[in-house]
Amino acid sequence: MIFKRYQEIIPEFSLFQEMIRESLPIHIRVNRLKVEPASVVNSLKQRGEHIKRMGSRDNTFYLASGLKSAGNIIEYFLGFIHPQALTSCLASIALSPERNSYVLDMCAAPGGKTTHMAELMNNTGVIIANELFPNRHIPLGHTLDRLGTLNTIITAYQAQEFPLREKFDYILADVPCSGEGRFRKIKESKDYRETKQMARFPEMQKRIILRGFDLLKGDGEMLYSTCTYNPSENESVVNFLLQKRDACLLPIETGFDYQPGIHGWRNERYDKQLGMAARFYPHFIDSVGFFMARIGKRG
Amino acid sequence: MKKSDLIKSGSSLKVYKVGLKAFHMVSTFIKPTGRFIQIFGHKATKARVAVDEQQLSTLFAGGAIQSDINIKKGYVILELKGNGILGLGFFNNGKIRSQIPRKEIKKNFV
């Protein structure tokens, strides 16, 4: 049994085990920078595709259960849609950057969340889309261009060493992680296994979250997110920030149900505020497993 | 956007790419990029050609379609009827050929 070590923290664990063996559904996000959702939905339905709206708050997320490859349809080429896991879309919703704001996406590739934030900002303000690895700049640039994102600057710093010269209104720290929540997606190509690299993630994540917080304006907000169940990469990292800085957790509203963050794992106890963090599990939301914490400055 | 304070802030960083590339030079022509045209092409008042799915199939297959558009020679904006701007074509001697990169065209577009 994989993820057995999480048996005590994941509710309805047997359902969870069943769900991660099912294939991941295809979700698409409609890009309102280029098209109205109703227009795309009607067009796809006319071609016989089964499209189901996800959630009541936003009309841009859809389950496209019959779509074999969303990247091969003309709506993709035109930048009308972007295939993106539902929980991944919710990160931008949880942060909800306002129009004309100054935003930093610390680990931007492949660009799904960056373009979503640009859409929420209606292409106003500026988003710094930072991505260290040059080989990821090309696909990132393609995604930004295809979706008609105009307000973005790509930089190539190590996230944990991003220059402190500027302060931002909003920061998205969707950090590199062990990717356990994507297990459904990758299981066909390789079996999940713990690697030495996974053990190194928390240290890097702690450095990134500290730098992100230090880059925030006084009234700024940061969203820390991962696609893993591992508390050592989630609550433990946020708890580290709460210990080191005057940070506080803010409520998360996405319009979708989630489980609260946990208060302890193995021998570690976490700040009570971690209950305001959000854990998204595949057996409740039928998407990639996800964690997010919305962070502000105290006082 | 160019004059905004936010852009001035961003200029202090080591930048790889800014915004969306709008034009580049091809021989003596100033050629708009396909992605730029997809966003701003609807604002053009001339050199726009609406194609149907059959014409699109011809263009995607590398063929040419006849057009009586009232321009001499140069780039035209290809629009799929009811589906927005596709990108660029090139008009010469009464015919239009697609300028949309082949690698981006998938067989089930039409």
Structural commentary:
The complex is a heterodimer of chains A (299) and B (110). Chain A is 29% helix and 22% strand. With 299 residues, chain A is α/β, with parallel strands linked by helices. Chain A has 2 domains: 25-84, Sun protein, domain 3 (Alpha-Beta Plaits, 2-Layer Sandwich), CATH 3.30.70; 86-297, 3-Layer(aba) Sandwich (Rossmann fold), CATH 3.40.50. The longest helix of chain A has 19 residues, at 196-214. Chain B has helices at 5-10, 34-40, 53-60, and strands at 15-18, 23-26, 29-32, 48-51, 64-66, 74-80, 84-92, 95-98. Chain B has a 5-stranded mixed β-sheet with strand order 4-6-7-8-5. In chain B, strands 2-3 form a two-stranded antiparallel ribbon. In chain B, a hairpin with a 2-residue loop joins strand 7 and strand 8 (95-98). Strand 7 of chain A pairs antiparallel with strand 1 (15-18) of chain B.
Sum this structure up briefly.
The complex is a heterodimer of chains A (299) and B (110). Chain A has 299 residues and is an alpha/beta fold.
Task: Present the secondary structure layout.
The complex is a heterodimer of chains A (about 300) and B (about 110).
Chain A: H1 13-19, E1 27-30, H2 37-46, E2 51-53, E3 61-64, H3 74-77, E4 81-83, H4 86-95, E5 102-105, H5 112-120, E6 126-130, H6 137-146, E7 152-155, E8 168-174, H7 183-186, H8 196-214, E9 216-226, H9 235-244, E10 247-250, E11 259-260, E12 264-265, E13 268-269, E14 278-280, H10 282-285, E15 290-297
Parallel strand pairs in A: 5-6, 5-8, 6-7, 8-9
Antiparallel strand pairs in A: 1-3, 1-4, 2-3, 9-15, 10-15, 11-14, 12-13, 14-15
Helix pairs in contact in A: 4-5, 8-9
Chain B: H1 5-10, E1 15-18, E2 23-26, E3 29-32, H2 34-40, E4 48-51, H3 53-60, E5 64-66, E6 74-80, E7 84-92, E8 95-98
Parallel strand pairs in B: 4-6
Antiparallel strand pairs in B: 2-3, 5-8, 6-7, 7-8
